[in-house]
């Protein structure tokens, strides 16, 4: 029931992101058409010129790879292996905790990278209130950043439960799997968001 409830919630959340995408494409279409008619640079063209693509790509790769480490943790949870069975350097012997801690760290790095990007953009006059394009950018990426932060909190709760109990139960395994659903969803949404905002021309 927890898994089904999570899927229903994620589906409703997807509708909100779909609305953000629709608003973004509509705004870009209007500003591009108006700029072409006036023979000037559109807000969208002005905005994308501020992006640091190498930094954004690196930050995105970190988030994508965190989905891989998360799935590794899920496979360990399904086998009932909560902790490592060997040295910390023996990655093959890691359990759910080690993989989820690594996923948490990578997710935190992504959020930190996004905050750094926001600070850089703000120093260049690219702020929430600059124009309609910047408002759409910060609304879409900021809402996603809140979801990533929510995922990090979910990882903390999941890891906390494994340390508070002596045995790894089926309920905890389900909790770990459901947490991975959410994390994979957040990653998939970012791939689409990144492609639309940073790459699509």
UniProtKB/TrEMBL annotation:
EC code(s) of this entry: 7.1.1.9
Q: GO annotations under biological process?
A: aerobic electron transport chain
Among InterPro entries, the record links this protein to: Cyt_c/ubiquinol_Oxase_su3, Cyt_c_oxidase-like_su3, Cyt_c_oxidase_su3-like_sf, Cyt_c_oxidase_su3_a-hlx
GO MF, one example: oxidoreductase activity
Give a yes or no for keyword rRNA processing in this entry.
Answer: no
Q: Which residues cross the membrane?
A: 6-27, 99-116, 136-160, 181-200
User: How is the protein disposed in the membrane?
Assistant: Multi-pass membrane protein
Tell me the compartments it is located in.
Cell membrane
Q: Heme-copper oxidase subunit III family profile domain: from which residue to which, for each copy?
A: 1-201
Q: Top EC class per UniProt?
A: translocase
Reactions listed under catalytic activity = 4 Fe(II)-[cytochrome c] + O2 + 8 H(+)(in) = 4 Fe(III)-[cytochrome c] + 2 H2O + 4 H(+)(out)
Q: Does the keyword Translocase apply?
A: yes
Query: What keywords is this UniProt entry annotated with?
Result: Cell membrane, Membrane, Oxidoreductase, Translocase, Transmembrane, Transmembrane helix
Note the superkingdom of the native organism: Bacteria
Q: Name one GO cellular component term.
A: plasma membrane
Similarity-based family: Belongs to the cytochrome c oxidase subunit 3 family.
Q: What is this protein called?
A: cytochrome-c oxidase
Instruction: Tell me what organism the protein belongs to.
Output: Micropruina glycogenica
